[in-house]
Specification:
single chain; alpha/beta; 3 domains; 17% strand
Length: 374
C-alpha cells in the first residue's frame, strides 16, 4: 500500500480494540508503511547525512500520525515529491564510482590491470603465489632495523581502527620501530588502542583547510630531525609483507629518494593485489632531507603530498629509487579525496615551485616521468 493512496481503513477503535501506549509511540516515531518520514523529512537521509540539509522531501505531513492502525488521515500528504538522484555508475570489480565503464560495467583502471600485471611480471615483480609460502613470509618476525623509524599519523575514525592495527603489526614484524604524530585529544585514546607504537609525538598544528584535517607532512618529516634518524614516512593503512632486504638494500644511498608503490588487493585476498598506478605511499627521508623541505600546508592522507616529495627532491638533483615489487600492500576501498582538495594542494606546489609545476592534466604526465610509470 503506497503513501499516496486515499483508501479508508478500519481502525482498532472502530472494532473495539486498543493498542498499548508504548506501541503507539513507537509507530508514530517512524511510519510502518513507508519508513521514510518523520516531521516531513526523510529518515534515511537524516541517518546518512545528519549534518546536511535534507535533499529529499516526501511531502508535509497533514496529520499527527500516518500509520494504518491510527485514524485514516494517515495518507494525507502533499503531492510535492523530490526523488533522490540516481547513484553514479559504479565499477562491478573495484566499486569505484566513475562514468568511465565499458560494456561489462568495468572501469578503465580495472581493464588495465591485466596489462599492468604483465608489465610487472616482465620486470620480475609478479605477485607471490598466495599459499603456505606467502603466509610464512607474512608472519616472519625479522631482525630490528636499527637505523630506520616508521613515522605515520594514526586515525581515530572507526573504519580505520582494525586496519591500522593489522598494518602496525606488519611493520613490527618487518623489524621497524614506530612513531605516530597526533594531537593531544587523539593521544588520549590512541595510546590504549595501539601498544605497537614505540614513540608518541604530540603535535597540535594540523591544517584546518581540509574537511578531514590530518597532520602536516612537515610535522611528520621533522621527526627525522628531532630523533636524528632516517624515517620511513608511510600512510597508516599500508602493510609491509616481503623480504626485509627489499627495503634495507635501498637505504644509505647518497642523494637518493627511496619511495614505495603500494599494491592494492580486494576482498581480503592478497592474491588479487595489483600495483597502484598513480599514488605513492611511503618515502625514506634522512634528517638532512627533512630539513630541506619548505613549509607547506600539505597533509598526510590528503591529495598531492605524494607528488610533492618527488618533485622537490628531483629539483635538488636526487635520484629516484622506487620499490615497485610487492612489498607495500593496501586493502582497496572507496576513494575519499576530492578535486577541491587536490586543486588546493596543486596550488601550494605552484606557489612554491612555479606555475608549471603541477596541475590536474599535468599530474599524469608527472607520474609517468617517475620510475615504474602506469
Amino acid at each position: 500500500m503506497g503513501c499516496g493512496q486515499s483508501t479508508t481503513l478500519p481502525t482498532l477503535s472502530s472494532v473495539g480494540l486498543s493498542m498499548p501506549d508504548e506501541v503507539v509511540a513507537r509507530r508514530r516515531e517512524k511510519c510502518d508503511v513507508c519508513f521514510l518520514a518523520k516531521d516531513g523529512v526523510c529518515v534515511e537521509q537524516k541517518r546518512l547525512h545528519p549534518d546536511r540539509p535534507a535533499i529529499i522531501e516526501v511531502g508535509i505531513l497533514k496529520s499527527e500520525s500516518h500509520c494504518p492502525l491510527d485514524p485514516p488521515s494517515w495518507h494525507a500528504w502533499t503531492p510535492e515529491v523530490t526523488m533522490r538522484p540516481p547513484p553514479p555508475p559504479t565499477c562491478r570489480k573495484c566499486f569505484r564510482e566513475t562514468p568511465e565503464l565499458n560494456e561489462e560495467s568495468v572501469c578503465v583502471w580495472c581493464v588495465s590491470d591485466a596489462a599492468m600485471n604483465a608489465r610487472n611480471a616482465a620486470r620480475g615483480f609478479a605477485v607471490p603465489e598466495i599459499g603456505a609460502g606467502f603466509e610464512k613470509l607474512r608472519l616472519t618476525q625479522n631482525n630490528p632495523i636499527g637505523n630506520l623509524l616508521a613515522v605515520t599519523s594514526l586515525s581515530l575514525r572507526g573504519h580505520h581502527l582494525a586496519r591500522q592495527k593489522m598494518c602496525l603489526e606488519s611493520w613490527k614484524r618487518m623489524g621497524l620501530r614506530i612513531a605516530s604524530v597526533n594531537n593531544t585529544e587523539e593521544l588520549e585514546h590512541l595510546a590504549e588502542l595501539y601498544p605497537q607504537v614505540d614513540e608518541w609525538v604530540e603535535r597540535n598544528d594540523p591544517p584546518t583547510y581540509y574537511e578531514i584535517p590530518t597532520q602536516k607532512i612537515n610535522t611528520l618529516a621533522n621527526v627525522a630531525t628531532d630523533f636524528g634518524i632516517d624515517i620511513l614516512l608511510i600512510n597508516s593503512d599500508i602493510e609491509t609483507i616481503g623480504r626485509q632486504g627489499i627495503l634495507t638494500q635501498m637505504l644509505g644511498k647518497p642523494l637518493s629518494l627511496v619511495a614505495g608503490i603500494r599494491h592494492d588487493y580486494r576482498y581480503g585476498s592478497h592474491a588479487t593485489a595489483t600495483r597502484q598506478r598513480w599514488g605513492i605511499d611511503a618515502f625514506v627521508l634522512t634528517p638532512d632531507m627533512a630539513r630541506s623541505l619548505p613549509e607547506m600546508n600539505l597533509s598526510i592522507g590528503r591529495p598531492v603530498w605524494d607528488y610533492w616529495l618527488p618533485l622537490h627532491f628531483r629539483e635538488l638533483g636526487y635520484s629516484m629509487d622506487f620499490i615497485a615489487a610487492p612489498f607495500f600492500y593496501h586493502s582497496h576501498h572507496k576513494t575519499f579525496w576530492n578535486r577541491v582538495d587536490w586543486n588546493y594542494g596543486a596550488n601550494q606546489l605552484r606557489k612554491q615551485y612555479g606555475p608549471d609545476s603541477l596541475d590536474y592534466p599535468l599530474a599524469q604526465k608527472f607520474r609517468r616521468s617517475l620510475p615504474y610509470p602506469p
